Each structure stands twice: as structure tokens, then as C-alpha cells.
Amino acid sequence: MIRRSISFALLPALAACAAGTNYRPPVVPVADAWRGAPNAPMREAGDWWTEFGDPVLDGLVATALAQNLDIEQAMARVDRARAGLRAAGAELLPAGRIEARAARERQSTESGLGQLSGLAPGFPRTVSQYDLSGGASWEIDLAGGLRRGREAAAYELEAAEASGAAMRITVAAETADAYVQLRTLQTRLAAATELEAASRRLVALVEQRHAADEASRLELEQARASAAATRATLPPLRAGIEAQLNRIAVLTGREPQAERLGLELPGAIPDAPVATAGTPGEMLRRRPDLVAAERRLAASHARIGVALAEYYPKLSLSALLGFRANAASDLLSGSANFVQGAAGLRWRLFDFGRIDAEVAAARGVEREALAAYRQAVLRAAEDLETAFAARAGALAQAGDLAQRLESAGHARRLAEQAWRAGEVSLIEVIDADRNLLEARSALAASQGEAARAAIACYRALGGR
Description:
Elements: H1 11-14, H2 55-67, H3 69-90, E1 95-106, E2 126-140, H4 145-211, H5 217-232, H6 234-251, H7 280-286, H8 288-308, E3 314-325, E4 337-346, H9 352-420, H10 426-460
Antiparallel strand pairs: 1-2, 2-3, 3-4
Helix pairs in contact: 2-4, 3-4, 4-5, 4-6, 4-8, 4-10, 5-10, 8-9, 9-10
């Protein structure tokens, strides 16, 4: 193997190169256009959540971006990666140090030089020693392993920064999603509460008619059962509202027991138009999570060069200048100084089997990173196409449900009028109540799903 038979005559040439190959971004095949993209103009640059036109949502997202602890962790990882890059760069530079030491020792007369004390009258058992020295060392990066290490650290910093940007998009989207779900549940609760009040009024009316022998016992029990069924829909909705309030509190960096910021008061379900998505190729450049995956791939490629550099010898230079004396007054005298220079060579000549394994492991990491990047691209495309489809389906459903709600409202009023006139039984009124509740709840849920799909589109587009 050529690497294993390298000669010292090639060492000067190694100083001008670096082990391994330069990184080239992979070519990932993508479609020319999205299948389900909306026919809408591109939106102008800016915060996507402002498209919902809800000041409360704007404030919540701003608070989450400033106080969320997941973002804080991501920024800490950026700081750590930046420190790693500085450390990798420092490896290429000479290292220097200054040392000072003062010691006092009482020697044993039963070991070492102390045994000679009997042959030398007045031999001092207690001695002092003072040292002051400065040294420098430098590993010459012949094979470029240190340069590849710095290159990998730079890629890892870029990956950390992109991951931080991706986390900001995730937190903003999660906050908006929780807010939309909160407003959806509050709307459904308001509809159920209104119907529950109507059911109670109906029960009271049936009780009066039953007392006057104008309504049967069966009609009374039917009215009571319907009212109980309507009341039973309220606790799950209240629990869902509480869960979303807790979720928003944590996303904004507060305890779930914190003050609700007025969010417990009902509000309208916000919605926003979804702009066109551009092309799949543009998505690769603007989604920070895909940028992070590609940068991690670049770092793993550079780490192969670090491993390959271990096949070659490593040359280091060092120097030491200092003073050493047994008395502090003599420490800086001319006779107390000493100078040392050294050149060192380290070569894992008989350890190539282990280096082979290290290189193979580095190549395996790169292969895994490449597969992870390609998978991330596929999943990103899947997320966006799914969000487009969900948005279109929810909007179409909301249109149909709005018509259903209008018809159910008319049917409910007509049924009650007919029952009061004795033309239909109470069961028709109860059925009309149930249909009205289902229509209002389904419409609110569909509107919420449309808004959540819009959030998913913006998130899948990289916050654009």
C-alpha cells in the first residue's frame, strides 16, 4: 500500500497538501415543481406568523422566540461549536507556556543520595530548588490532519447555526399551532355552552308542559337525556383548552401555573393565506434543517481526512529556556540559565490496522450522514406536499360545513316551532339540536385544521 511505504523524501511535499479529498455537496434529485402548491403569489420577506393578522399571536411568538428554553439550548450548542472551531484553529499554531516552581525538600539518609551523607561531613539534608522557564512547541501539520480538523469544526459550527435557525422556526410554528388549537377549542366550547343553555331551557319548558299534562313522561326524559349528553361534551373541551394553555406557557418559557395572559378569554380562529412555494430546489437552500444536515455531511467528510492523516508521520518542534538554582538570589544569574531545543517524530508505523479501522469508521459516519441528508430532503418534501393537501382539503370541507351549519340552524328553529304547535314530537327537536351542535363543532374544527395546515406549510417552507 502506497501510504504504508511513504518515505521521508516525500515529507516536504506533504506540507502543501491535506489528507483526504475536498468536499463537494451531493447532488440530490428533486422534482421540478410541487404537486399541490397553491396558485398564489410569493409573499414578501418578513415574519410569516404576521400573515394571520392576530396581535395576540404576534406577541406570543415574539415571547417564545425570546424566552423558549429549546432555543436557549440550541444557542448554547452554537457557542460550543464556535469554541470547538477556535480550539481546532489553535491546534495549528505554536503553543507556549511559562512555568515557575519553588520547592524545599529534606532528604532521607537511608535512600538515594542521602546514603552518601556519611562520607561527606556537613552534607545538607534539606535543600531548596527554584525554577523559572518558558517553553514553546509546535506540531507541523505535514499531512493536513489538523487542517481537516479545523475544516470539520467550521462545518459543525455552520450546522449548529442552521440547527438554531431551524429551532426558531419550530418554536414559532409550535406556538402558533397551540394558539390555533386553543382558539378552535374555545370556539367549540362556546357553541356547546350555548347549546347546553338551550337544552336547559327546553327541559324547563317540557317540565312545565308535563306538569300541565301537555307533554308525556317520555318526552320529559328525552329532553333530560339530550341535555345531559350536551353537558357531557363540555369537560373534554375544557380539558383540551387547559392543555393548550399549559403548552403555550412552556413554549414561552413560563411555568404552566403562570398567569394566562388573558388567553382564557375566547377569541376568533385566525387564518392566513399560503403563498406559493417556489421550487423544490429552492427549498433545499432555504430550509435551515436541510442546511444543517448537509453541513454535518461536510463535517463527516472532513473527518475522513483527519483519520487518513494518521497514516503519515508527525513532526514537532519544541524549545525551552529557563533558570534553575538552589538559592533564590542565584536564580537569574548567568550560570543558572539553561536552553533546550528538540525535534520529535511520531509515526504509528506498526499501528496501521487500527488506523484502517478508524478510517473505515469515519467513512461509515459519512455514509450515514449522506443517507440522513437524503432522507431529510425526502421528508421535507413529504411534509410540504402533505401540508398543501391538508390545507386544500380543510378549506373545501369548511365551505361545505358552513352550508351545513346554516341549514342546521334553520332546521332547529323550524323543529321547535313545529313542536310547540304539536305538529312533531320532541325527538325531532332533539335531533335538530344534535345536528346543530355537530355542525358548529365540525365547522370550528375544520377552520382550525385549515389554519394549522397553513402553519405546517410555512414551517415546511422554512419559515418563508
